[in-house]
Amino acid sequence: MADTPLLLREQQYHQIKAVLARLRMDSAAKVVFLVDKDGQEIASQGELGNLDTTSLASLAAGNVAATGGMAQLIGEKEFPTLSHEGERESIHISVIGRLLLIVVFDERSSLGLVKLRSKQVSHQLAVMVDEISKAEFTDEDTAFAEITDEDIDSLFQ
Amino acid sequence: MTFINYASREINCKIVYYGPGLCGKTTNLQHIFESTAPQSRGKLISLATETDRTLFFDFMPLELGTVRGFKTRFHLYTVPGQVFYDASRKLILKGVDGVVFVADSQEERMDANVESLYNLEENLQTQGYDLMKLPYVLQLNKRDLPNIIPADELAAELRRKEEPVVEAVAASGAGVFDTLKAVAKQVLTELRKG
Predict the structure, then answer these.
(1) Quick check: helix, strand or coil at residue B61?
(2) Structure-derived torsion over alpha carbons of residues B42, B43, B44, B45, reported in degrees to the nearest 10
């Protein structure tokens, strides 16, 4: 059957945002994202502007999935980091368990600094990710149990 | 895997359209994209070859509306249908919440349908899923063509459980939203049970 849902509580969300904000500052990055390996955006911080974060999250996950497949073909479990250098802007992706830490940076930063700072927060994020993965529905989550057929039908009217 | 963000009050689910090459998976998404108001959908990302065959995946986020105070967003994906892209198909199925199998109704594509369906079951199993327990819809596409297998015969051959079967002509949009509605309902019903 389908996996149990991934639940991100409000407090956890704000804690993650705080970590990403600090990472962005420490690495002089433009934007920092946390994305699920399935392509769902968890949180982001930075100069988002008109950036299509949903598409970026999906493509980053696809990228990691594809290169992960390549890694396994050559006997590696996965590539823990991926870097893409552009003319003006670059992307660095770190794999943290089931999540991807994506840092978009320009000439104000450097790959070395981004890699260093990403590694420094990875353990903290890994602990947070572990907590999120273990979260289950509680008695407070009555909203979902109360969803009716009419509620669902109304989405398609 | 359904992702529920309590801070932004969002439910995010992943639907994958599966089926043999040229059956109409991408056409389904293109129709949904063209028929949906821009504020309710994101961009349609298509990673395709120069001849417009899906190379890796198509992706489109769709916002259906609000349920119990939560925005429901469906991430629609298609897989590449050509046989030799099996490694990619496995990857795209990861985290799936619901599957649509798009069957090509033409007589000469029957073997391809069966092979693709078997491939779906195998790849789901590899990812730890059981088709029998997953939200699932069977779409019989290309019902407008002359050389097609009768719908009841096709359904009898391809149906795996009591899944909804929707006849469609994705090129004109017929049946596309009925299919999406059917699988989305099942996904949200599973969430309610959870």
Answers:
(1) strand
(2) -120
User: Using the beta-carbon criterion (under 8 Å), do B185 and A9 form an inter-chain contact?
Assistant: no
pLDDT for the residue A100? 94
**pLDDT at res. A139:** 60
Measured CA to CA, the distance from residue B166 to residue B147 in angstroms comes to: 19
CA torsion sign for B18, B157, B176, B100 is negative
Report the topology of domain A10-154.
Beta-Lactamase (3.30.450)
The answer to whether A3 contacts B1, with C-beta atoms less than 8 Å apart, is: yes
Task: Determine the pLDDT at residue A1.
Answer: 40
Tell me the pTM: 0.90
**Please, what is the Cα angle at A63 between A105 and B25, to 5 degrees?**
130
Do B15 and B98 touch, CB atoms closer than 8 A? yes
The Cα B14–Cα B140 span in angstroms is 21
A8, A38, A154: residue with CB nearest B94: A38
Give the one of A5, A54, A151 whose C-beta lies nearest to B67's C-beta. A151
> Which amino acid, residue B68?
R
Count how many domains chain B has. Answer: 1
CA–CA separation, B93 and B7 (whole Å):
27
Which residues of chain B fall below pLDDT 50?
Answer: none
**Res A6: pLDDT:** 80
Radius of gyration of chain B (CA): 16
State the nearest Cα–Cα gap between B93 and chain A, in angstroms: 9
Q: Residue A6 has which token pair?
A: 């991934």
